[in-house]
């Protein structure tokens, strides 16, 4: 299990889709913004401002990035990249634990 040290955590949760997706935002020791959260089963669309690296820590999702026609499956210990100023559709199959790094 990876342990994050020396982080600045925002206490207030980010709550989306009537509480079905939640996360906590923090800044790590090198100043990078990240979030750690949980997604309940369902279908969601997210928009991005910054590029993102989405890591699936546990669970299973299907993802379709903006401009693509196909869905890709991601499970534990896999990840996908999302471009800045873009969006993605996600189908959460089971409760999913995720870690998001915002790329400047």
Protein topology:
Blueprint: E1 8-9, E2 14-16, E3 21-27, E4 33-39, E5 42-47, E6 51-65, E7 72-75, E8 78-82, E9 87-103
Antiparallel strand pairs: 1-3, 2-3, 3-4, 4-9, 5-9, 6-7, 6-8, 6-9
Give a description of the structure:
This protein is mainly β and 104 residues long. It has one domain (8-103): Jelly Rolls, CATH 2.60.120. Helices cover 0% and strands 63% of the residues. The chain has no helices and nine strands. The protein has strands at 8-9, 14-16, 21-27, 33-39, 42-47, 51-65, 72-75, 78-82, 87-103. Strands 1, 2, 3, 4, 5, 6, 7, 8 and 9 form a nine-stranded antiparallel β-sheet that branches. A hairpin with a 5-residue loop joins strand 3 and strand 4 (33-39). The radius of gyration is 13 Å and the shape is globular. The mean pLDDT is 95.
Form type: globular
- Structural class from helices and strands? mainly beta
- Unreliable residue runs: none
Rg, Cα atoms, Å: 13 Å
Could you name the CATH topology?
A: Jelly Rolls
The count of domains is 1
Name of the top-level CATH class? Mainly Beta
How can the largest sheet be summarized? 9 strands, antiparallel
H/E topology pattern: EEEEEEEEE
Keywords:
9-stranded antiparallel beta sheet, Jelly Rolls, globular, mainly beta, 104 residues, 63% strand, 0% helix
């Amino acid at each position: 299990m990876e342990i994050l040290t020396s982080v600045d955590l925002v206490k207030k949760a980010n709550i989306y889709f009537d509480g079905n997706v939640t996360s906590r935002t923090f800044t790590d020791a090198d100043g990078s913004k990240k979030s750690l959260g949980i997604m309940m089963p369902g279908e969601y669309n997210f928009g991005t401002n910054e590029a993102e690296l989405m890591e699936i820590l546990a669970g299973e999702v299907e993802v379709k990035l903006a401009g693509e026609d196909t869905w890709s499956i991601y499970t534990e210990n896999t990840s996908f990249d999302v471009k800045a100023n873009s969006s993605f559709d996600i189908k959460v199959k089971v409760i999913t634990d995720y870690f998001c790094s915002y790329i400047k």
